[in-house]
Amino acid sequence: MLTSENFKLQIRNARKTYGPVIALENTSLEMRQGEFLTLLGPSGSGKSTLLMAIAGLNNPDSGAVWIDGKLATYLPPSQRDIGMVFQNYALFPHMTIFDNVAFPLRMRKVDAAAIKSRVAAVLETVQLGHVAQRFPRELSGGQQQRIALARCFVYEPSIILMDEPLGALDKKLRDALQLEIKHLHEKMGMTVLYVTHDQEEAMVMSDRICLMNHAAIEQIGTPQDLYFRPKTVFAADFLGESNLIDTVVSEIEGERIKVTATNGSTVCGHAQATFRVGESAIAMVRPESVRLLRADEAEENQVQASVKEIILSGPVIKCYVELAGGAEMKLTQLTSGPVHGLAKGQKVRLGWSADRTVVLANKRELAS
């Protein structure tokens, strides 16, 4: 049986309200040593409220927070052995980089020789050993964020909390730092709880993703779990692009299910809920799993469509089509050269595998 001692972090039924507004609703969550877990979701979904409860900056109204097997719900932040990295870096402008990174060690009364050694080691880890005597204003935004990470890593906290640390950076630098943080996590074995609203960031960096919506956990699992086997329409729509087809259940064989679209086409897939024959459902397939079929090709799921739009967006070609009855679908394929033999209004057949089709309960809440 798993107990609090088996987890680095455990949240049990945490709830937080502000007057009539529910900011967090009976949320439970566990993390193991060395795990990189991302809280992902739109604004107002509860992810920052949960992070603040863990940090001790905003105590829950009810529920419990356990850190390293010890009850920490109402402990002050200084007694939780937690490090935090924010979007705004929070570096001291009047201190050198060395002194910024050394600050948490000096606050903990670490001796001077150990401080010198540990600061030098962590600056080399983030590849900024050469800037030790500079001031924050002399560094780029990306370098400052790496120093903020180094300052957090240097005292080896039990858990590192990161609240949208890359949000202020441009895309190219953000992409580079995503991989850098991922590699640092792997190298140092840190336990990281990361908050973002950026789905790509969560997919790239995380061991697991906790998708939040309406102050509660919508789904938690590996990036592959959430992408290929979403459990709700919201999860399917929030992560990546998806085709969502209105259907009615026509046949059930265990987890395998056959549904009929409003235009009469049948689609086979895997059920992510409990269904009855005749019940409405949503069939989901990712655009990259759909392909144009040649005349001599067949696929388990296939539909007739008319091309509406063809868009070249660099590495991929996006094709938007309309099915009989007016429903729309999209497919994407890697760009291998100029688009030939495809034009607006052209009749095509689309096909995709039943293994790439997920049938969801018909609760059409889309990500905003």
From TrEMBL:
EC class: translocase
ABC transporter domain span: 9-239
Highest taxon, organism lineage: Bacteria
Annotated catalysed reactions: ATP + H2O + polyamine-[polyamine-binding protein]Side 1 = ADP + phosphate + polyamineSide 2 + [polyamine-binding protein]Side 1
PANTHER family tied to this protein: SPERMIDINE/PUTRESCINE IMPORT ATP-BINDING PROTEIN POTA, SPERMIDINE_PUTRESCINE IMPORT ATP-BINDING PROTEIN POTA
Subunit structure: The complex is composed of two ATP-binding proteins (PotA), two transmembrane proteins (PotB and PotC) and a solute-binding protein (PotD).
Name of the protein in question: Spermidine/putrescine import ATP-binding protein PotA
Native species: Aromatoleum petrolei
Taxonomic lineage from the root: Bacteria, Pseudomonadati, Pseudomonadota, Betaproteobacteria, Rhodocyclales
